[in-house]
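Coenzyme A biosynthesis bifunctional protein CoaBC (Phytomonospora endophytica), 421 aa
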Amino acid sequence: MPTSKAPSRAKNIVLGVGGGIAAYKACELLRLFTESGHHVRVVPTEAALRFVGAPTWEALSGQPVATEVWNDVHEVPHVRIGKNADLVVIAPATANLLAKAAHGLADDLLTNTLLTARCPVLYSPAMHTEMWQHPATVDNVATLRSRGAVVLDPAVGRLTGADTGPGRLPDPAEIFAAAIRLLDRPGEPDLAGKRVLISAGGTREPIDPVRFIGNRSSGKQGYAIARAAIARGAEVTLVAANVALPVPAGAKVTRVETTAQLRDEVVAHAASADIIVMAAAPADFRPANYAEAKIKKVAGEAAPTLELTENPDIAAELGAAKRPGQILVTFAAETAEAGTALEYAAAKLARKKADLSVLNAVGDGRGFAVDDNTVTLITPAGVLATLPAMSKDRVADAVLDAAVGVAPVGDPADPDCSRPA
């Protein structure tokens, strides 16, 4: 779960609450903001107060709550609240609220606030699947995103009644993480309108129904890149291999187990992606033969011999099929000394026709399953940057910064086909 730190400066956050059953989850989101030291003004719709009353919001925020522009008119709240905000978060954002925001309607305090805010705005929709997938909602979301707002895709799960599907409000901790990233990077989302495909985690190659060949990758770095890309306005598809982490709010997640499954899912989504980040650790080899029953240890008999065969090189396949302008980012996890590791990573970069390689040192408590990472960013022109040890969240933004700024290999706009932009 994302953790909060005391902010360098307390920010003014407006938490808009729409009239949906998920309004009760916004109480937890409010608690995360206030416990992080931020000032939060809750602005619910009139319908939201049917689910959670004003006294609850006032007690949790320490701020007055109003729904109409007629309260405290002398303070001009319908203008002042939005203008003073560093961030506006709408959770849950109902279909009705998204429609009003997209069309500039302002018939209550919250919709007026949205028109006057000049800070980042984050919408976290929650509604029934049919409402989320209706062409009107799809168009409204596209309109808001085109204006620079960050609209998270809802989670998939149990909805009101017996129905299940996309439309569930993401976990409040993940909405909080997305919001904090927006506070850390104010300004227009530089990945708005971009599609980013990310792989994360480590594959498992079954030996028998009980055992498998795997690796130590936890998926933390890939998930951090997904959260960063979402906060920067991208539409993110995440292919997760055996990852036991909360789903980043707004990501479309497909879960896989083996390298072959990872390859199939990544290839299926690659053609429509603007940026592909291969942060997963796929197994290079798999057992040549799968035992249908558990392999038993028999006293007096020698241990069985495990024959391995090569797995497909997913990144190389993606590099060979890249379309003009598409960016491919690969990871190179190495245990070798720095100089040798750089040679390995540079060779992999060329072999896979990637545009950016992220070399990270692993082993001895480094890289895998920890919160920090030490990476070197490499382009076909050479080393772009060697970063000191830092959080994987910060590494994520550094990787995306480099991906946005690099010239794609073979791009006709780059006659050298190698230099960083």
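The chain has two domains: 12-184, 195-405. Residues 43 and 66 are 6 Å apart (CA to CA). ok done for today
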